[in-house]
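Feature request, filed as a ticket because there's no other form

It would be nice if the structure record came with a short human-readable summary line next to the tokens. Right now we just get the raw output. Example of a typical job, pasted below so the devs can see what we mean:
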Amino acid sequence: MNRKRIIVGVAGGIAAYKACSVVRQLSEAGHDVRVIPTESALRFVGAATFEALSGHPVHTGVFEDVDEVPHVRLGQEADLVVVAPATADLLARAVAGRADDLLTATLLTARCPVLFAPAMHTEMWLHPATVANVETLRRRGAVVLEPASGRLTGADTGPGRLPEPEEITTFAELLLARADAMPFDLCGIKLLVSAGGTREAIDPVRFIGNRSSGKQGYAVARVAAQRGADVTLIAGNTAGLADPAGVHVLHITSAEQLHEAVTKHAPDAHVLVMAAAVADFRPAHVATSKIKKKLDVTEGPAIDLVRTDDVLAGAVRQRTDGQLPNMRAIVGFAAETGDANGDVLFHARAKLSRKGCDLLVVNAVGEGRAFEVDNNDGWLLSADGTEFALEHGSKTLMASRIVDAIAMLLRREA
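Raw output as currently delivered:
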């Protein structure tokens, strides 16, 4: 039932080889994928490769299989069109409404979501013509991803690198999952997001930690950046997650380092999203060498614990005291289990009242839920008393709903 018809357009750039992974990942997810390259793209990757990966013939012009009218039919029947890479030339032709090959003709007839993943040199990406073209496509309802920064062709580096295939397919799946388009509505908003678990050292080998993978916080940062926000991500232990495209990432280890990073960057932020799983306690003293196991002692050493700073509550207090004049929304996260005193929502409502944040994302944890998995669900509680369920799905889909709520909150305050 989830099998969708996806067109993957491939423009002529050095990053065309990454389209092979995009096609494979979408095909392995169960979708019916058809590749439409430009003539230039076939100078980088041959048609046989795309045919083998997709299981469909590959054409570039409108005069093959004319009886099936492919230049109209393919766009009409598609559930999603992904163009990766989208070169400066392809973006310009899409804006102009050109239909001089099968890909641009398909873009004109498509009435489904369209996702462009740009790839070009920094100078081309920042050129006023490209900037205007991207703005036009977004205004028309297309999703144009912010490119990654990194190594480009030759020795050049900078913004303009194609996002990794996993990031492209993540947004492709998100567009298929959302009942509405993903808006580009957070321009000018500075978002500070924390993600992952902290580790509190016991000695040079051991630490107190938790099971947070950082996937949910990374998803929030990724979605917000692609909706136009200027995002800084403070990342704790995240099991080697790749940095999201268009996001400034700061890596930390402990709760103290997280507190210092939030304290430093929060004054400039409009929104704080505290998705990190922060340790509540840390050892009062950290051994400078590994604690040895003594064979003649049956009990282990006692470890005295002290509370760590409550970063979320501290940010709320600072805003109340006027120390965060730019801060317009603070979002907390709660990983809860029910107990004899109440269920998950009972404890979450109490935490929202205690913390004083504007929104609280609530997850029920345990039995393979929330931590170290790709899918999630939960509830979103607001300080005004409204509550709604977050449907089960990918953490990116959940992140998009969280960002929807943040955007709505910002619009109400505008």
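Something like this underneath would help us a lot:
The CA atoms of residues 379 and 389 lie 4 Å apart.
The mean pLDDT is 92.
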